[in-house]
Amino acid sequence: MAVSDRIAVVTGAGSGIGRAVTVAMLDAGFKVALAGRRADALEQTAAGHPDALVVPTDITIAAEVDALFERVVAEWGRVDVLFNNAGVFGPAASAAEIDPEEFTRTIEVNVTGALLCAGAAMRTMIAQQPSGGRIINNGSISAQVPRPQSVAYAVSKHAITGLTRSIDLDGRRHGISCGQIDIGNAATQIMSEIGVGSGALQADGSRLVEPTFDVADAARAVLFMAQLPAEANITSLTVAAAGMPFGGRG
């Protein structure tokens, strides 16, 4: 299938990695449905592109997620790729300190929201002709090694790894593949807000200004995964800033 015929859905498309991936996909010839809670931010990402479809969506509400995929099918006939990206960092807290309601909210967005989107994508991909497609989950390197004081986020991103593996297994007989990209320190506004650029908390209690890399390079990695032929799948890919304290975090 030519790239110009491929249909993608990107969640969390209003900012950060989601915005960068949306722009990269549009530039590569994909038709892209932009999902997220803030319509104005989605419109800024779309920038009037003729192959962009803005669909404001709260991914924690099943009916809105189903409506998102129904809208895409009504508009373009099918879904070939889902970049399951929307998420929140959650509170800075350890397991001993975290408010249970804040923990639940983080899981609701990062895990339940991702599950709802993946489920709707799978049902769409199974029903369409020809059937099949690809789901790419945004895991974060916190799916491998957590930061201090990030129990909710770390738990949610470890759960994404289980979701990825389950989708790839259960989707196999339907021609649906699933892979995960774990991104570390891509330079986005939200990374600045949590202090990575000005000094991130380290395991020994100190703060360190960590290196970052251009979010466009993270987007190129997602695009590479999305453009693979159906016969190939990247099940796990880590892209991190060179020199960041990742392997030695603990």
Please summarize the sheet with the most strands.
Answer: 7 strands, parallel
The strands making up the biggest β-sheet line up spatially as 3-2-1-4-5-6-11
- The percent range for strand residues is 15-25%
Helix/strand-derived category reads: alpha/beta
The overall pLDDT, averaged over residues, is: 93
What is the CATH class designation? Alpha Beta
Distance between the termini: 44 Å
Name of the CATH superfamily: NAD(P)-binding Rossmann-like Domain
- Gyration radius over CA: 17 Å
Could you say which overall geometry the principal axes of the C-alpha atoms support? globular
Uncertain ranges: none
User: Which sequence of SSEs, written as H and E, runs from N to C?
Assistant: EHEHEHEHEHEEHEEEHE
User: How many separate domains make up the residues?
Assistant: 1
How many β strands by DSSP?
11
Helical coverage, percent range: 40-55%
Individual helix count: 7
Brief overview, please?
Helix content is 40%, strand content 19%. The chain is of the alpha/beta class and 250 residues long. The chain has a seven-stranded parallel β-sheet with strand order 3-2-1-4-5-6-11, with helices on both faces. It has a two-stranded parallel ribbon with strand order 7-10.
Q: Can you offer a commentary on this structure?
A:
With 250 residues, the protein is an alpha/beta fold. The chain has one domain (3-240): Rossmann fold (3-Layer(aba) Sandwich). It is 40% helix and 19% strand. The chain is built from seven helices and eleven strands. The strands form three sheets. A seven-stranded parallel β-sheet has the order 3-2-1-4-5-6-11, sandwiched between helices. A two-stranded parallel sheet has the order 7-10. α4 (100-127) packs parallel to α5. The longest helix is centred in the middle third of the chain and has 28 residues, at 100-127. The protein is globular and about 55 Å long. The N and C termini lie far apart (44 Å).
